[in-house]
Amino acid sequence: MDSSYQTLINEWKKIGCNVVQPIKTVNLRLEPKKVLLSQNDVILTKDNQVYQFDIQNESQIAKLKKHESKIKFILRQENTLITSDSEGLIVIWNLIEKRIQRLIKLTSSVTSMTIYKTTLFASSLTPSIIHQWDFKTGEKITQYEGHEKSINQIQFLPQKSTLYSCSDDGTVIAWSTSDQNKKIRLKFQGHYDPVVCFCIMEEKDLLFTGSKDLTVICWDMKNAQPIQKFYDFSSLTTKMIAEKNQVFIGFDDGTVIGIKPNRRKSFEVGVIITSSEDETIRIFSIDSKKSKILCEGHKSSVKTFSTSNEGNLVSIDADGEVFFWPVKILKAEKENKKKTKKTKTRTNEEIPKQEIEKSILSSKKLNEKVTVFIDGKQYQGDSNKSILEVCRENGIDIPSLCYHPRLHPLSTCKCCVVQIETTANCFRKACACATEIRDGMKIITNSNEIKGFQRNAILELRQKQRSRALTLKDESFDKSTEFGRLLTNVYDKFVDNSNGAISIDLSKCIDCARCAQVCDKIQGMSIISFPARSIGAIETVLRTKGNFLSESSCIACGQCSVFCPTDAISEFDQTSVLKQQIKLGDKRLVVGIAPSARVSIAEEFEMEPGAISVEKFVSALRMLGFDDVFDLQFTADLTIMEEGTELLKRLKDPNAVLPMFTSCCPAWINMVEKLYPFLIPHLSSVKSPQQIFGAIVKTFYAHKIKIDPQNIYCVTITPCTAKKQEIHREEMKSSGFQDVDLALTVREIGKMLREISINWESIKETSFDDPLGKSSGSGSLFASTGGVMEAAIRTAYEIETKKTFPKLVFQELRGLENIKQTTIEFEERNTKGLITFDFAEVMACPGGCLGGGGQPRSHINILPKRIQAVYDNEFSLPYRKSHTNKSIMKIYEKFLNEPMSEISRKLLHTKYRPNAHQSEVKQNSINMFKFVMEGLSEHNSVLVLFGSQTGTAEMAAIKITQILLESKIKARLFEMNNYPITNLSSEKFVILITSTFWEGSFPENAIQFWKDLQSFSFRLKNIKYSIFGLGNSTYTHFNHAGRLLDIQLKKLGAHCFLKMGEGDYQAPDG
Predict the structure, then answer these.
(1) Which GO terms describe its molecular function (predicted)?
(2) pTM, 2 dp
């Protein structure tokens, strides 16, 4: 024993480490290669032979020989042993009879195996395929193809009917073993080097993966999103085990790290057990520093360890010597749990220096300044920033595609790979976007190896685009499969323009998942499915299989198009329509500029917001061929006049519906009509400024210039993709024609202006045309979130009180916060703010129109600059309130009479309707529940529970509850996860409404309820229930969640008082 090792022993003794000697040893006189150690015996291999020893009686039980080449894997299930070799031979042994039960031959070496009951999963080297066998009968069941390189580990979860596998291609795939038409469920993509092992913490739906890049990633199993990455390991991950609420990760230097999720959804980390080349076993507890044990005695490296029948530790080394230790691990863990109320990780002072160097989480203060070395130069940065952020702050260029500062880094494109020094002159690769800096970190961004890797990553993305296009064009593609039907039905021409606002070109998609993230995390819609990106861009785009985008719950906000780096998702480009109309020249071309468009147009020419004056913008539009250029801020003033008056009328009417919601955002209107139709009475009836503009142009202005309205072609320039849909609403024809003929985004008009090579420096300034050209500051505020309310309050207050408003600027309504509120006194009436309120503004996009889906794709810090440009414009205008704008007063005097007049209602107001396809509960559903109510009386109390992923089931539940209440039946409505399930046994009547999500599972807001119901210990004999399942009957798992509920409730003794209902929204009767 050398002096350094003795020093380490002494250090451990100082901190309370107990050095123990073995109870006994058994020498098997064999140097094993593979070892299976159980409580009673040990099975080990040497070369091509298998040995079984009784370790209690110190005797050999059997010697098994069949393989002609080196044995690579051994598995055991009770008395069945499975071995495989480097030539692809799999042998099934009967350990009782000591004979071969069956032989299975693969075409190449076995790379991984796992078993469940009589099912064997084995992966072959070439090709990289997982084979599924019934090893009792020898029948091959199926095979799984999808990995591009060698498979390293496979694991089967029978409860989820899911098989997991990891590969040298850097991915983990979740395979469906129940659906043979669509085997790939999810792909976990975040490592850029081979994934060598993984483990699953099933109770928390967590997946841990370890890679040759010396990182470990924790994933959310439900959506394949990375939760946390662990870095700075000193050696390669070799094995992972999930044990209850902890994960043990083993490394090839013998270290084992323990990771435990805590209540804050972060992770506590400590060194748990190590066994290495120093021929010892060290045991540490993650819960308490009191259990530190050093098992000393092995003379060669420890191969594996287990527990004996008595719970003591048993270990075996490379010499074949078995040691029994007086260490009862399981008992010690239980005692620690009783004594320790709170888990506690050891501090750096409590851990030996050698372990600290191997630990992955050194505590780090937020925003602490640290020093890093990039390409040999010293820089400083905040400790919570990524390498990519620090490099860009210091002018160091690193390419990236999938990264966006407002989104969680997924590291899917691999373009931002850098090298990080681990030890002297030893480097590992890491994705700069997802790796936080730490003090002393040495980073290389410009080596030939890195440049080559980045170049290859980009080439792979280009190849992915090309191969996807070829797949879509391939006429021999199997159209009988579900995936094939999807291609045939939706994407014959690559592009889906079905909703008229957003265009999806799948041949450009690189699976970066930006669109899915923004749709889910920022917009909260989850229309674009991140989990399905593993199957390719097809289902990335739509969660609803085989449907056009127009048939989904998409509200056309267009945020996905703003975040898309390759233009695979963009606004529905209609510049060619305008060009054709200009070429025809048979109509008067009239255009209106939206408030935010006049600010952001400069960004299309790489200038700061507001850098191009609106007067130059007007001149540029005339150069394009427009006859009249008007200002939509003028019609925004009209909107305020009408909306402010409507608000006052509602406040005075005791029977009016309050709160009143603004209606100028068409994406918000889409959301209400599709997902929340019960809010329709709350919407203001006033049209958006765009639609008021079209109605006024084709009535008032047409009459003024003595031209037939059908000879006017009305165009708007907007920040919004949903405006493209709005112009085609049936209600938007109050002029007798389609009020607005074409809506173009800022990006589209920027493209057209670039095509004519406009020179902004030399262009002369001209003013808007009359009479729709003079606006107030209130109209300009429509561009920013909170601006509509601020403008409306200014006017409503002065109209109502006949007093000058005490202040013009409401700082509490300004800025980019998601939720803002204020209180305004209207004589004796007082609006109460957030809890009880009278007026609410809703905008679908971050920052309002300034962050709209049709705005330029600019950098992250652009929104504050845009909003400041709006406020500067508002301050500069001669009129600050809509009702003080003389041009507005003149149009009321000459044409509209007064706000809310008969002609105003006809031209400037509209109606809304539920979207029957997606959210309206069909009459047969209502009839069914009326039938249910025939067995109820007003003395009954009904519990209504719902599980909903997109809002359809939620709307059905709300409608059912309303019907019950209207019938004087007491009804209570709960989201399933929010209902205290312990109260269920006291209920009498329960109605359950649910959709089925993804591969037959429950919606996210019902998963916990389902888990609790499965473990429910009370009988439900007194409950009468009915279940209603919603969905699409073409979906493979249609109403699967409803059926599971039905089965479980019957098991618990509940009585079904009405046969399960199934709502198929694709059926003719809904």
Answers:
(1) 4 iron, 4 sulfur cluster binding; FMN binding; metal ion binding
(2) 0.59
